[in-house]
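Whether sequence alone determines local backbone shape is best considered at the level of individual chains. The sequence in question and its structure tokens are set out directly beneath this paragraph.

===
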Amino acid sequence: MSYAQVSLSALNADAILNLDDVIAEEIYIQITGTFTGTLTPAASVDGTTYDAAQLQSIGGGAAVSTVTAPGSWRPALFLYGARFFRMRMTSYTSGTAVVNISTTATARA
């Protein structure tokens, strides 16, 4: 299992989880705190170039490409081959978003 917890309170602040040492079976994102801003999920193979990812609420519903309120999420589609997962504060006004990202995983051989 991999885990990251980061408090985001600035434009372009990142919460990044390195998936390189595990085979991520599931990714779980929990966002708490009081903030006014927009968080954008993305995945990467090299940790430099990120591609947009969509999330779906744990409670169900439509996939979203940004998050503007606390909640619990998972990727809408499995991120095949991704070695990094990121939540970035792409718009920021005030407050702090606490981003927890974890995986269930098995060790790479």
